[in-house]
Structures are given as structure tokens and as C-alpha cells.
Amino acid sequence: MDFNLTGEQKLIAETAREFADREILPRVRENDRAERFDRELARKLGEVGFLGPILDEAYGGRNLDYIGYGLIVGEIGRADSSVRTVVSVQTSLVGSAIEKWATEEQKQRWLPRLCSGEGLGCFGLTEPDTGSDAANLRTRATKTDSGWTISGQKMWISLGNAAEFALIFAQTDPGKKHKGLACFIVPTASEGFTSQEIHGKLGLRSSDTAELSLDAVEVGDDALLGAVGDGFKVAMSALESGRYSVAAGCVGIMDGCVEASVTYAKERQQFGVPLARFQLVQEMIADMILKRDASRMLVYRAGLLKDEGKPNATETSVAKVYATEAAVECANLAIQVHGGSGYVDDYPVERYLRDARVTTLYEGTSQIQKLIIGRAATGINAMTPMVEA
Description:
Blueprint: H1 7-34, H2 39-47, H3 66-79, H4 81-101, H5 104-116, E1 121-124, E2 140-143, E3 147-158, E4 165-171, E5 181-187, E6 193-197, E7 209-220, E8 224-225, H6 231-267, E9 269-270, E10 273-274, H7 279-307, H8 313-338, H9 349-357, H10 366-378
Parallel strand pairs: 1-4
Antiparallel strand pairs: 2-3, 3-7, 4-5, 5-8, 6-7, 9-10
Helix pairs in contact: 1-3, 3-4, 3-6, 4-5, 4-6, 6-7, 6-8, 7-8, 8-9, 8-10
């Protein structure tokens, strides 16, 4: 494995860092306090090519490799995980699913608007009673003469209030479990489609999060993404890409924790010397660096496998569970270095902790990732009889 970034990859990282410092950091605290989703910032992400960077240039993407994509979400995540969520959802959950499973007509219709930021999409999988158990969705899709009728609810949907369209996963035949799942591209302006904003979140406060309701929403056969029965595979392929972006974003959180802690420890004086002179403060900073660097290497490994087209589900799960848990630990340590100052939003570390916590939950909880890893190691599916993947 070559640990040296190419010239292009270095430029990608530098460009993303400059964008984050110029466009995101000046407004991050106020957006977080106001729980305000910054739609204009989402458009700017599209303008600089950060929405759909791994997608084909023919549809408005940049055709970057996964290493480059990871560098982008890492720098954006260092500045604000709420903004990183926009990149991850548009690129991994929605964009990659459409590029892999859609017809040419569907790609031409939706991907250019997605990549430009003109139109946002959302990923409607999770339901009020169904998270990890994706095979038992209650949302139903019923075949009609003209297409399909979809009814159900979705929960915790990022960008659900701002999206122009949603990927809605629904069960067409409950008896078939995951083999009966289908995915539909549903315009959010459809009659019977409503969204409600979710407030009071611990973190990602400036990320748009919604509860979706579909009451006999009618769509044509051309709304189907892939075939009936492909829904589970569509979801899993998108989540595998999403897990990578979340892991890379957490490397960015840890970068921010280290940078903020080093700066504060060198500037803050106690007992007449900088905090950095104290051995236990240096230990906390060193622990953060160890977790960050280990996470970065795991993300690189998963990214290289993806770029080479090799199986990487286990490696992606390893990167996801390690980096997300490490980000929580690093943010907690960063607050400790800052002392009382770390408990208020004059410094970014309290937000890093709040934002990092949810990363251990979505795109598959840490426990689900460990079951995936354990299944690969033992050949035994501990999730049976829930799902035979």
C-alpha cells in the first residue's frame, strides 16, 4: 500500500480545506445554535463539485476515486458534520444508488440536479419501528394498473424536508421478507407526500432531519429503481458507500479535535506554564492522534479496495465502527483538555462530541458493524433469522 497521496489527491484535500475554512466555519456556530439548515451552502457544495464527486462526469459528477472522496468529506467533517451529512447523503446514499441501479433515463433526469445542488435527494429507509431490521419495513407498495400506490412512514430522514425527491423503500410482498422489497424514486411534491421537521436533536443541529408520511402516493412504473425484489440490495450497496463516508468524516472530526486541543494547550496557562507542559495533557493529545491515525489508515484501506473493485464490506465496517467510536472518544478527550471552556460553544469541541455521537448509530449501528465483521470471521450469520444477506 502506498501511503503517499497523489498530486491530484493533495489538491483535492487543499481545495476542500480552503472551502471549509472560507464557507463553513464562519457560520457554523450560528447555524448550530439556530438549528438552521443552510440551503445556500448546499448549493455552494454543488458549485465546487463536492456533491457526487465519485459519480460519472456524464451526469455532473467528478469521477473521483474513493480516496479523494474521503479527503473531501474529512475536511468538510472537520468544519461541520451537519454539512458533511449533505455530501454523504447526496453522494453515497442517493447518488451512488441511482448510478448503480437506475435506467439511463432516470440517471439523466435526477443525477445532474443532484450533483449541481439544484435539487436535493433523501434516503427513505428507516421507519419509526424499523431501523436495523430493514427486511421488515411496514411501508407498503401496491401494484395498480398505472403503476404503484405507496403508503407508510419514514423516520430520521436526513434532508427529508429540503429534498426534491426521495428514495422510498417499500415492501411489495411481506411474505417474501427482504426479497419483496422495492425502491422507488418519489418526487416530494407528490400528492399524499408530507414531511415534518424533527427538532431537539443532541447533535447535527443544522442538518435537516425529517419524518416522512406517504398516504396513498401514486407513482408510475418508471419510478421503480431496479426491479421488484432489488430494494434490499439497493439499500445495502448505498449503505456500504455511506459507511465509508461517515468513517472518513469522523477522521475529520478527530483532526479538528487534535488541532483545537494542541492550539488551546499551547496558549492556555496554568501554574505559570502552558497546559502543554503537563504530561497528562500530552497523553490525552497523544491518545487522540493514535485514534485519528489508526482510523485514517482503516479508511484508506477500505477506499483502496473500493477503487480496485475488490470486496470490501468487512473492511468498510471495520473502518466505520472504529472511526465513529474513536471520534466520540477523541471529542470527549478534547473537552477534557479544554476544561470548562470545552463545555461551551466558544470552542468547537463540545459540538464535535454532540455530532460524533450519532455516527455510531446511523448507516448501521456499531453493533451491526460488529455482527458483519463477526460473520465474515466465523462464516456464521448471527443476525439469522432476521436477514440472510
